Amino acid sequence: MGKKLEEYGLWESSRVLLPEHKSRIPKGEREMLDRGKPVLDEQKLEEIECTLALSLRSHVRVTVVLHDPCGNKQLNGFVTSIHTHSREIKLQWAEEWKWIRVDDIVEAYIV
Q1: How far apart are CA 75 and CA 94, in angstroms?
Q2: What is the pLDDT of residue 105?
Q3: What is the rounded end-to-end Cα distance, in angstroms, of the chain?
Q4: Nearest-CA neighbor of 80 among 63, 64, 60?
Q5: pTM, two decimal places
Q6: CB 62 within 8 A of CB 68
Q7: Which of 50, 66, 86, 104 is in the most buried spot, having the most CB atoms within 10 Å?
Q8: Would strands 62-66 and 88-93 be described as parallel, antiparallel, or unpaired?
Q9: What's 47's DSSP letter?
């Protein structure tokens, strides 16, 4: 720990990308960092929420596509819990599970 990374001058333990560090990153790599989450309209959000609720009620497998700056990620499993107050779902597959923020989901569909 504490060793500086050579290329960008960031500390190894750094978790935050400061603006002065971001300006030192080559343009092509910076564009990957700037890739923002798409803005979903109300109809799309409702469709995602209905799909998640259907998975919970009917115990059907669902695929969710999560926004990630480096490329969207897909997870496949069963919704076993929905927390409306924190806007999170619990997605379970095999013996594993993960809490996922609904706001991170850009697509959801029944498998």
Answers
A1: 12
A2: 95
A3: 44
A4: 60
A5: 0.67
A6: no
A7: 66
A8: unpaired
A9: H
